[in-house]
Write a structure and sequence with these properties.
Layout lengths: L2 H11 L9 H30 L4 H8 L3 H4 L5 H16 L1 H75 L6
């Protein structure tokens, strides 16, 4: 892709109209894009070089022309040494570091989502508890009102019974 095409594509991605860019500004953009492409090319080469530095027990034995018999003799010391070196190298490899960070990031994000869900559940339960407390208060008030009404009815009933008893008493029996 030509330099101007790359610049136009990036300008469009930035939601800018490439046709409105003046020529003197385009010269700067061409210089900048040229430098960026050189840096990106270098970066790709470095990444490729890093990828090509990987080694295995077999590749070390082959490259040094050490026979398999020798390599696995001496209580497998040579093989164990290379394996140990591979493990150390993996820890320094930027690809592995990035992969470990990505896995860690995913784990943290999944834990955050679980905590957010837990928090939402707690808030919903707190809200439900508050509603139930309010309903309970209302029911308690209703019970108290009914008790008072029952006491009033009981008093009226006693008064009625007292009047009824006094009417039914014979004046001769007293």
């Amino acid at each position: 892709m030509e330099l101007d095409d790359v610049i136009k594509e990036k300008l469009i991605e930035m939601e800018l109209d490439p046709e409105k860019i003046k020529e003197n500004l385009m010269k700067y953009l061409r210089s900048i894009e040229q430098l960026i492409q050189e840096k990106d090319s270098y970066w790709k080469q470095v990444l490729s070089d890093i990828e090509n530095t990987k080694y295995t027990v077999k590749s070390v034995a082959d490259e040094l022309k050490i026979s398999r018999t020798t390599f696995y003799s001496y209580d497998n010391l040579l093989q164990k040494y290379v394996q140990h070196s591979i493990e150390k190298s993996k820890k320094r490899n930027p690809y592995n570091v990035i992969q470990n960070l990505e896995e860690s990031h995913k784990l943290i994000n999944s834990r955050i989502k679980l905590m957010e869900q837990r928090d939402v559940d707690v808030l919903l339960l707190e809200n439900e508890n508050e509603l139930l407390r309010n309903q309970l208060k209302e029911k308690n008030k209703e019970v108290e009102n009914l008790k008072e009404e029952l006491i009033g009815i009981g008093k009226k009933n006693s008064a009625y019974n007292n009047r009824k008893d006094s009417k039914n008493k014979s004046p001769f029996l007293s």
